[in-house]
Amino acid sequence: MSNKMWGGRFAEGPDAALEAINASIDFDRRFYAQDIRGSQAHVAMLADNGIVSKDDARAISEGLGKVLDEIEGGTFTFSRALEDIHLNIESRLAEIIGPAAGRLHTARSRNDQVATDFRLYVRDAVDALDEQLAGLQAALAEKALTHSATVMPGFTHLQSAQPVTFGHHLLAYVEMLGRDRGRFTDARNRMNENPLGAAALAGTGFPIDRFATAKALDFARPMANSLDAVSARDFVLEVLAAAAIASTHLSRLAEEIVIWTTPQFGFVKLSDKFTTGSSIMPQKRNPDAAELVRGKTGRVIGALVGLLTVIKGLPLAYSKDMQEDKEGTFDALDTLSVCLAAMTGMVRDMEPNSKVMRKAAGAGYATATDLADWLVRELKLPFREAHHVTGRIVARASEQGIALEKLRLEDLTAIEPKITDQVFSVLGVEKSVRSRTSYGGTAPPNVRKQARGWLKKLGKG
Ligand code: ARG
């Protein structure tokens, strides 16, 4: 039997392999609500402009409402033979209301229909992600406020560099997530145009009102070019790019959590709720959730690269390749969402071990820069010379196997005679972080101010 929705010119039905490769219903069914919303806006506009009768429009709209109830009530039977969500819904509508259902598709094609549905779906998903990103920012900012003066080693090359505060470190992620949200918002603004009414590719001769459907669907305006309207997928690419970057940020934090929770570091303890055990080694506390946040980033990046690859060779306007825009996108957006939930829980519950972090902050001569700065400030040495003198002092301390502040004054004056015991005032880790008062620096009052500022912005202050 040929396809009942488009099979007029076909004598034979599709091969099973065609059906298998062609059907998208297994995944595009998830935007049934957006499809119905778009159809209801379309048919209302058709009636308002005298293209279908008011009675037919009412029957169609009510029938679509019933289809929606059936899908949400779990009584709807999806059919692969009907390819996709659009044809599944329209076919069921015809069963419910009869031939008037056939008027719904006037002045419309599945090409503008799917573009509309997908925009509506991605727009909703972006709004939900924004809320989750804000939730993670709040969890980080709250932890940062609690630990505005908790000292830890700051690293470069993963080697102890200079002491920082744990709060400062967490706020770095709040900033990143803030930019992630900005990227999603930018993408949302650009995507918020209505493709509906572009029809197959060239527009339509029916006197439709694309501004009306734009308004009904909360789009800012209709898309200006019908070819572009059905061909454009940069709105998804942008969202996937934003998702890939956000995932990368989560992955970096996840990696840090994995490092911090090793017995060797012991900086941070995750709650039992976010830790798993080993079936053979009873002592283990594994940070599986953090590892998976790190690992799942690959899928999100993969979705972006996958879709870029699909789109890059496509001539205008619609090609069926574009149906490949969905599965990767759904997977990427779902993945980011579950990663955000896991990360927010981990951050909310995690407890730093301030003693261990403080000890580590003092190791590795992390206050050497403070010593060099002191030589510049107090002895007026040029920084390069101060750097050299400090290097020699560090070497001396290292030979003796002791911390900088444990050196005797004679050891210091043997290297630079003008040094006084005043120098000891800058060598402790707390003193070091307290001195970093430059804008954006790690000094605890800075951190408190920024954490409070964020919490206020996030509506938690
Ligand atoms: N399922 C299709 C998709 O996702 C809908 C558009 C089909 N259009 C067409 N002319 N075959 O892209």
From TrEMBL:
SUPFAM superfamilies: L-aspartase-like (SSF48557). CDD domains: Argininosuccinate_lyase. Keywords: Amino-acid biosynthesis, Arginine biosynthesis, Cytoplasm, Lyase. One of its GO terms (cellular component) is cytosol. Its EC number is 4.3.2.1. It catalyses: 2-(N(omega)-L-arginino)succinate = fumarate + L-arginine. It is an enzyme of class 4 (lyase). Residues 8-302 form the Fumarate lyase N-terminal domain. Belongs to the lyase 1 family. Argininosuccinate lyase subfamily. This is Argininosuccinate lyase.
